[in-house]
Amino acid sequence: MADERGATASGAVPSADSVAEPAGYPSQLVESARLPDGTPLQVRPIRPNDLELERDFIAALSSQTGYQRLMSARRPPPEELWRFTHIDYDHELALVACAQIDGRPRMLGVARFVRDSTGRDADFAIVVADAWQGRGLGALLLDRLVRAARTFGAQQLSGITMSSNTRMLALAKRLGFEVARDRQDATVTNLRLAL
């Protein structure tokens, strides 16, 4: 029997292949896209069978990128990675950008939001693989996430980033987010967008 994180009673995390695609998968959000440099990719909601792609993606992040995403030096344990790919589409969404790299599918970035209990406010996060930063992927993913949040009925998207994360701050400003240093912790900046 699995608990709410998906770990079995023995503590093992089930294989992604053993989990069926969940009902309610928002297939209308699947789309082909191109980066400004012409790189073709697919942007789509994450699926349970993306567990290995997610694991490889997280493992390849530099310590700086991982720190900026998780706001700590920790690496997510297997049950947390399982949770990242097995989501409740009624309350959250994770959009992944995938491409064929050296003949293999690769996850290049992920943007996600989780709505609060009212459904009106959603917290978001985004991370792009180091090799793909500065190529327009973050803007593409965040733009698609904002659109999806509106479709889901959210009225506000908010998140936090390290105040030293200048790329994220510039991207948020470009997309219309209100950017404000946290009053209690200057190392953190709050991001907010009315939808």
Sum this structure up briefly.
With 195 residues, this protein is α+β, with helices and mostly antiparallel strands.
What does this structure look like?
There is one protein chain. The protein has a domain at 28-154: Gcn5-related N-acetyltransferase (GNAT) (Aminopeptidase, 3-Layer(aba) Sandwich), CATH 3.40.630.30. The chain has an 8-stranded mixed sheet with strand order 1-2-3-4-5-6-8-7, sandwiched between helices. It has helices spanning 51-60, 63-70, 78-85, 137-151, 166-174, and strands spanning 31-34, 40-45, 92-101, 104-115, 121-128, 156-162, 178-181, 188-194. Helices cover 26% and strands 30% of the residues. It has 5 helices and 8 strands. It is an alpha+beta fold and 195 residues long. The protein is globular and about 45 Å long. The N and C termini lie far apart (40 Å).
Strand content: 25-35%
> Which percent range fits the helix content?
25-40%
Low-confidence stretches: 1-19
- What is the CATH class designation of the domain at 28-154? Alpha Beta
Termini gap: 40 Å
CATH architecture of the domain at 28-154: 3-Layer(aba) Sandwich
Strand order of the largest sheet: 1-2-3-4-5-6-8-7
Number of strands: 8
Helix/strand/pairing class, anyone? Answer: alpha+beta
In CATH, the homologous superfamily of the domain at 28-154 goes by the name Gcn5-related N-acetyltransferase (GNAT)
Q: How many whole angstroms does the radius of gyration measure?
A: 16 Å
**Run of helices and strands:** EEHHHEEEHEHEE
Q: How does the major sheet shape up?
A: 8 strands, mixed
